[in-house]
């Protein structure tokens, strides 16, 4: 029984970078839709909650969060959480400006912050600093950390529960 447990655990591999990118892209896309829906409700009291985004958001969020994942892995033992979140927030502003600037060259930038008081070229705005910081905290503590814990079991059959041992939070479940 012990040998079977070791073999099953050894077949579980971390997700590939492409798999993680996909999860991060879908997460960012979903958050963008939910944020714009909530914003529309708060600003215009629109009970329809119309959330919008662009297909570009998949690339933008997926790539950005994958880069932040690399930052997290390098910085987690070197600096405190709040400093890391500040670094992620600064990265977010740099990434949003850069991707927005490139997309604007093709008339494809889906956002425009020109109506905000503290915008820069309509591509970024300081009014979003707190939401970006909170998003960075959530991104590290929940999204990235949990995504890095996911494993792919190449021997598992689709739709079939795992044979013993069932893994629970990285530990062999013995009951």
Descriptive overview:
Helix content is 59%, strand content 9%. The chain has 175 residues and is mainly α. It has one domain (14-150). A two-stranded antiparallel sheet has the order 1-4. It is globular. The mean pLDDT is 89.
Brief descriptors of the model:
single chain, 175 residues, mainly alpha, two-stranded antiparallel ribbon, two-stranded antiparallel sheet, 5 helices
Question: Oligomeric status of the shown chains?
Answer: single chain
Could you tell me the mean pLDDT?
A: 89
Strands of the biggest beta sheet: in what spatial order?
1-4
Query: Measured on Cα atoms, how large is the radius of gyration?
Result: 20 Å
Question: Low-confidence stretches at least 5 residues in length (pLDDT < 50)?
Answer: none
* Strands, total number: 6
User: What order do the SSEs take from the amino end to the carboxyl end, as H and E?
Assistant: HEHHHEEHEEE
Kindly name the structural category. mainly alpha
What would you call the shape?
globular
Helix content: 55-70%
How many helices? The count is 5
Secondary structure: elements and pairs:
Blueprint: H1 2-11, E1 12-14, H2 17-44, H3 56-75, H4 81-105, E2 119-120, E3 124-125, H5 129-149, E4 151-153, E5 166-168, E6 171-173
Antiparallel strand pairs: 1-4, 2-3, 5-6
Helix pairs in contact: 2-3, 2-5, 3-4, 4-5
Give a nutshell description of this structure.
It contains five helices and six strands. The chain has 175 residues and is mostly helical.
């Amino acid at each position: 029984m012990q040998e079977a447990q070791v073999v099953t655990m050894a077949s579980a591999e971390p997700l590939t970078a492409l798999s993680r990118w996909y999860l991060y892209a879908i997460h960012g896309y979903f958050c963008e839709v939910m944020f714009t829906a909530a914003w529309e409700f708060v600003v215009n009291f629109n009970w329809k909650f119309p959330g919008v985004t662009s297909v570009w958001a998949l690339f933008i969020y997926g790539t950005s969060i994958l880069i932040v994942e690399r930052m997290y892995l390098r910085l987690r033992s070197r600096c405190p959480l709040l400093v890391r979140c500040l670094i992620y927030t600064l990265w977010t502003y740099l990434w949003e400006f850069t991707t927005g600037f490139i997309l604007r060259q093709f008339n494809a930038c889906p956002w425009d912050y020109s109506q905000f008081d503290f915008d820069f070229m309509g591509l970024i705005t300081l009014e979003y600093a707190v939401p970006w910081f909170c998003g960075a905290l959530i991104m590290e503590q929940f999204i990235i950390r949990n995504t890095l814990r996911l494993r792919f079991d190449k021997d598992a059959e689709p739709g079939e529960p795992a044979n013993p041992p069932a893994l629970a939070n990285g530990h062999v479940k013995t009951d």
